[in-house]
Amino acid sequence: MSTTVGSAAKAPAPWKATFLEHINKMESPEFVFSSLAQAPKGSPVPYVPRARYCIFRSFWAELPENKHNEAPMNERVFESEMPTFTTDVRMLKVPQVFASSSGHAETNEQCQGSGGGGPVEAVWWVKATGTQWRVKGEAYVVGPDIEDGGESSGVRTVKSEVGSRMRVVQPGKEGEWSWAKELTGHFGNNSPGLRGEYQDNLFDTVLPPLPASIAALAAFNHGYTSYFVHIACYFNQDAYPARKGNGHGPWNWKVLMAASCRQAKSTRAPTAYTGRCEIPVATRASDAPQLCRQPGFLAPVVVTACHGSLGMSYNVTNTGPRFAGTFRAPPPGRPVNEAYDDKNLELGTQVKDLNDPIARKNFRVVIIKPEQVEQTDISDPAKARRQLYTFVPETADWKAEELWP
């Protein structure tokens, strides 16, 4: 269980609420994660930057509820302002945050457990608000050794550094909170395909997370005599240029069907024209996985149903079984003609066991401990500003400055 003391901070960071509000406006909470890699021999500098896109999962200790996640969950005993993402220990970003830390890991074996602490930056561009968010700090890796009975120096480092920024919100329950349970919760929040690769199933499909107000799924047929079904999906504007919408990137929303269906067992099946084909639309929302399998379309991502005067919806933000399978994929970045454990590692593997030994061996959660956060708002060129928030360890508070952009 936890040995976490917790942060001395009394309130959330002043930038947190706005950050989350902006993230919820993104079609997918992608960000650029930059770390430092050792420079090639002969280079005039010791390190060179490396960047890649990652997906923001949640702030550490604040993993959202997900009805598709079967993993046991911690109570919300702590809160934090430390962004997290999940990764594979075989990815280069993991040894980079170890090697650039004060511990200066030199071998791959030294990067297999918890630890790290190297300097990193994370950048989000929120087009809807014209705002760039930049988080500068240190990255720590949580691995399967976080509560294995013995505490390595890496485990102690993670619990000390990360724990110092975990704010207690349920005093007296700190000892009931488990690091290992939180790690498993993050694993369960990945779909079986990303625990093995994505599935073509609406209820488990990983799709760009949507704002909670519209990311709704109603899949019920509980004997009501009438109901209204509304289905929308992403469509590729390049494939269907005549149906371009408001220009939010190459993918856009398209309402495929809106129909009122009488009687739960009705055989009525209205259709929606997509520009290339007629798509039969079932009268039950639970039939939605059969829709939108045409080229240029993703699976339906918003399905709402109203039974009579009752409005019911469910949030679909899980990554489900399809993500977890990537942790049983062949070694990332290795030549495809190089020998590997092809009996246990395969693309497209579905992992439904929360304790799958191979997937869990490779699975990691990376926590970014921010030292500075920048919010640059250029939505109005005449009023553009940069807000700089710097963490002050002595007071466990944030110093705010307003800067020119």
UniProtKB/TrEMBL annotation:
InterPro entries linked to this entry: Pyridox_Oxase_Alr4036_FMN-bd, Split_barrel_FMN-bd
MF annotations from Gene Ontology: FMN binding
Residue span(s) of domain Pyridoxamine 5'-phosphate oxidase Alr4036 family FMN-binding: 13-142
Domain of life of the organism encoding this protein: Eukaryota
One Pfam assignment: Pyridox_oxase_2
Signal peptide boundaries: none
Protein name: Pyridoxamine 5'-phosphate oxidase Alr4036 family FMN-binding domain-containing protein
Organism lineage string: Eukaryota, Fungi, Dikarya, Ascomycota, Pezizomycotina
